[in-house]
């Protein structure tokens, strides 16, 4: 399984020379199986560059959306495979109590906000609400769980053979927790990330930033490490970088983190274009 | 007196961060115009975030936001405009009348499920004006004229005038086969014309790919024709395609300069001083 | 075993509130009780952890205003689980300090995303002591 980061930024794209190392595109991760099947995790602006690399011979693309905040769907209209006539495209995302996923995506992807409607896309599009639990997409075993973040939000665990990835880009496992994160399944997302080879996890805030942003659905650097250790992840990639953290700030925050926390696994800040061969 | 025009986002369609766009900039549409003591912001693409971070340091914010239209790339930065969350901020939002209330449309991107803070809950004071074709209105010390342009969903171009200086902002408009007479009238003798130049002429025509006719954007050639027909002082090429690299933008700029000397491709951070003192107008 | 996120958030809320709160799963097993509830039960959550339905129901014996024991089926939490509707009633218990206490209890079912039935919660209020 090969994992490539196409967008690592949270909230809003941040183009510019001072973010060019870690990247300014919003959330998008490509997961490629040994047989070349592709899963796309989230449709932030990073999906535009990813779309340009998907060959015309591809027969099917699956896009798994964690939730419908803007930075996770804003690249959707610029994903080239959507405009390939007949290409089989599946969008998966969380259900909500009142409206279908298709209707909620359509609120954003329709005039006057965007000129093309979902139903006008020439690809052969199916929209699915992800079930809680497991499902199979081609060679991938996909496990989903609702996780702690405002509005219905799911985390994904992707397994192919004996390799696994957990994707929790927007996640606040420490909401309302005063001491250490709780064990025994009392921490949101814990099982999803247990013993994974690679954990891609929200680390938007410093401890000081978090004090003013409790309940906003994001994690601090130190809590991300604590969560990874609780789940015994083998590698942690910090993700969903704050728009106000430029390259120098982020690099220094991560090196301080590693020095202070001495994590049990390798911990790095994900950067655009980074590839993990699991 | 003069106006100051600063470019905070010059990209079209979708933000395009990356090393190939770092010089020109990858933020979507946002231009700041300072006319005397008044501040006008043209569009609220991702570029507005940094503008907001600057403004919030300078005390209470009172701005007029002119929206060309409400496609994502022209409004997606608004939820990240820091002054929106300051109780002392006054923001006057102007948009072309298109049947839907501007407030409702903006709320579609600022409410659950797409954004955690609801537009209804922000503490700043916001007012809305929906303008019609050829309507003139006042924005602080400046006078503004709105004119409808050519785009799949309704788009308006604006001419901002302040004590004899003038700036015209016409993005997301399509030229089709001739110079748009309404835009030529709007831009007549303007000091600066900021104009959509998203496509190369051959891309627009669909040579070697899909034609972009009907997509609501224009080319550097059409920009030059309009600039000449309207006798503008300076032409600013704007709304660069997200796939256009820095080299690509420079190449377009050079081609356009060959036909209209006082042309510049918009870059993030670029500052133009318009009018008497700055002599933005070609001699 | 992973707890459902709705249950996790309910526990976190309960841990901040100053009224006794019990959270049970669809089978009535006690998943969590907060500090004010510890005073009613006479045990600490940290020591007992999750308690099976049969066990925790015996920890106190609620009675009606006349002192007659209540049938388990009449307890609001049991009603909320069985009917999936909220239930409320007054009852009396003898506290750990030997005092008779009047309690008001509201129980409501927890229905999560996609209509998943996740259990029930009960809140206690102290009535007049007599």
Number of distinct helices of chain B: 7
Structural class of chain A: alpha/beta
CATH topology of chain A: Metallo-beta-lactamase, Chain A
Q: Any idea of the CATH class of chain A?
A: Alpha Beta
Query: How many domains of chain B?
Result: 1
User: What is the beta-strand fraction of chain B?
Assistant: 25-35%
What's the end-to-end separation of chain B, in Å?
A: 18 Å
- Sheet with the most strands of chain B? 7 strands, mixed
The count of DSSP E runs of length 2 or more, i.e. the number of strands of chain A, is 14
User: What is the H level of CATH, i.e. the homologous superfamily of chain A?
Assistant: Ribonuclease Z/Hydroxyacylglutathione hydrolase-like
Determine the number of helices of chain A (DSSP H or I, runs of at least 4 residues): 6
- Major β-sheet annotation of chain A: 7 strands, mixed
Q: For the CA atoms, what is the radius of gyration of chain B?
A: 18 Å
CATH architecture classification of chain A: 4-Layer Sandwich
Estimate the helix proportion of chain B, in percent: 10-25%
- List the uncertain runs of chain A: none
Annotated CATH architecture of chain B: 4-Layer Sandwich
Radius of gyration of chain A over alpha carbons? 18 Å
């Amino acid at each position: 399984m090969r994992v490539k980061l196409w967008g690592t930024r949270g909230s809003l794209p941040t183009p510019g020379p001072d973010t060019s190392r870690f990247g300014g595109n919003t959330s998008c991760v490509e997961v490629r199986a040994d047989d070349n099947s592709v899963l796309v995790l989230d449709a932030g602006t990073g999906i535009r560059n990813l779309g340009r690399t998907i060959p015309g011979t591809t027969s099917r693309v699956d896009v798994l959306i964690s939730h419908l905040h803007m930075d996770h769907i804003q690249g959707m209209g610029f994903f080239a495979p959507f405009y390939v006539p007949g290409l089989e495209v599946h969008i998966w995302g969380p259900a909500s109590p009142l409206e279908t996923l298709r209707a909620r995506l359509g609120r954003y992807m329709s005039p006057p906000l965007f000129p093309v409607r979902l139903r006008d896309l020439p690809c052969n599009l199916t929209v699915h609400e992800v079930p809680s639990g497991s499902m199979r997409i081609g060679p991938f075993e996909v496990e989903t769980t609702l996780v702690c973040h405002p509005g219905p939000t799911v985390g994904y665990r992707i397994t192919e053979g004996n390799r696994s990835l957990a994707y929790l880009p927007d996640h606040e496992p420490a909401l309302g927790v005063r001491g250490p994160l709780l064990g025994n399944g009392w921490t949101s997302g814990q099982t999803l990330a247990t013993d994974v080879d690679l954990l891609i996890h929200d680390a938007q805030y410093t401890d000081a930033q978090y004090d003013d942003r409790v309940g906003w659905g994001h994690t601090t650097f130190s809590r991300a490490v604590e969560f990874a250790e609780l789940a015994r992840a083998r590698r942690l990639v910090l993700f969903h970088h704050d728009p106000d953290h430029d390259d120098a700030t982020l690099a220094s925050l991560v090196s301080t983190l590693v020095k202070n926390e001495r994590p049990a696994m390798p911990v790095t800040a994900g950067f655009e274009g980074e590839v993990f061969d699991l | 007196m003069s106006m100051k025009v600063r470019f905070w986002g010059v990209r079209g369609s979708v933000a395009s961060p990356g090393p190939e766009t770092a010089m020109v900039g990858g933020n979507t549409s946002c231009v700041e115009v300072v006319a005397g003591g008044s501040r006008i912001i043209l569009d609220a693409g991702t570029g507005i975030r940094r503008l907001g971070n600057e403004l919030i340091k300078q005390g209470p914010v009172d701005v007029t936001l002119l929206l060309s239209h409400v496609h994502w790339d022209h409004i997606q930065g608004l939820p990240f405009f820091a002054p929106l969350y300051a109780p002392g901020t006054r923001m006057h939002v102007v948009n072309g009348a298109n049947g839907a209330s501007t407030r409702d449309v903006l709320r579609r991107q600022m409410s659950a499920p797409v954004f955690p803070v609801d537009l209804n809950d922000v503490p700043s004071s916001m007012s809305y004006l929906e303008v019609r074709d050829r309507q003139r209105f006042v924005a602080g010390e400046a006078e503004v004229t709105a004119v409808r342009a050519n785009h799949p969903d309704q788009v308006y171009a604006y001419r901002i005038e302040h004590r004899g200086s003038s700036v015209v902002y016409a993005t997301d408009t399509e030229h089709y086969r001739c110079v748009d007479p309404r835009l030529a009238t709007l831009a007549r003798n303007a000091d600066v014309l900021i104009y959509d130049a998203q496509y190369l002429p051959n891309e627009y025509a669909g040579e070697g790919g899909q034609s972009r006719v009907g997509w609501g954007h224009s080319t550097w050639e059409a920009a030059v024709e309009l600039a000449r027909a309207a006798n503008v002082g300076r032409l600013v090429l704007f709304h660069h395609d997200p796939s256009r690299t820095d080299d690509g933008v420079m190449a377009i700029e050079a081609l356009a300069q060959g036909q209209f000397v006082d042309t510049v491709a918009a870059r993030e951070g670029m500052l133009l001083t318009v009018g008497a003192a700055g002599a933005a107008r070609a001699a | 075993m992973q707890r459902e996120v709705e249950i996790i958030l309910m526990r976190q809320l309960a841990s901040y509130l100053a009224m006794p709160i019990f959270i049970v799963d669809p089978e009535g097993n006690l998943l969590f009780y907060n500090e004010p509830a510890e005073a009613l039960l006479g045990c600490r959550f940290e020591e007992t952890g999750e308690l099976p339905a049969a066990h925790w129901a015996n920890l106190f014996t609620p009675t009606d205003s006349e002192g007659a024991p209540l049938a388990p089926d009449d307890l609001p939490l049991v009603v909320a689980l069985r009917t999936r509707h909220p239930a409320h009633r007054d009852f009396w218990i003898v506290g750990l300090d030997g005092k008779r206490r009047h309690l008001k209890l509201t129980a409501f079912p927890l229905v999560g995303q996609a209509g998943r039935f996740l259990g029930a919660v009960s809140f206690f209020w102290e009535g007049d002591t007599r």
